[in-house]
Amino acid sequence: MEKKVIAAFEAGIKLGALFHQFIGVPVSKKNVELLERAMESCIRLQPYVADAEVRIDRKKLEDVSKFGYTSLSPEMLNARVVVEFEGERVEAALEWDDRLRYPLMRLL
Fold first, then answer.
1. What is the average pLDDT across 12-27?
2. C-beta separation of 88 from 3 below 8 A
3. Nearest to 105, CA basis, from 2, 20, 32
4. pTM for the whole thing?
5. Of 95, 46, 32, 87, which is closest to residue 107 (Cα–Cα)?
6. Integer Cα distance of 36 and 71 in angstroms
């Protein structure tokens, strides 16, 4: 199998794992940066990851419960991962697509 295809597949696996592991976690303005760093750290532990970046939309954190937090939803999450596999490098992103109403992954 072509190395670039393997790298692209690995990038998708990383983003899919991130999405399914963290959607629903409690988040507020108080812990948003900590959560972003924790998510990045978890991605970076996985094989072939050269870089990772996670951003949570701060504007969407304004609608919190009376207890001061909300649950992380797909619309809030933006992530990027760089995977290197045997000399091939790919970059991929996970972003909410308003038109599709879906968390879309794509190669950059």
1. 97
2. yes
3. 20
4. 0.92
5. 95
6. 14
| Range 3-107: architecture per CATH | 2-Layer Sandwich (3.30)
| Nearest one of 92, 77, 86 to 9, comparing CA atoms | 92
The half-sphere exposure of 71 on its side-chain side, counting CA atoms within 13 A, is 7
pLDDT at 62: 85
Residue type, 91: E
Q: How far apart are CA 52 and CA 39, in angstroms?
A: 9
Separation CA 40–CA 21 (nearest Å): 12
On whether the CB atoms of residues 59 and 29 are closer than 8 A, the answer is no
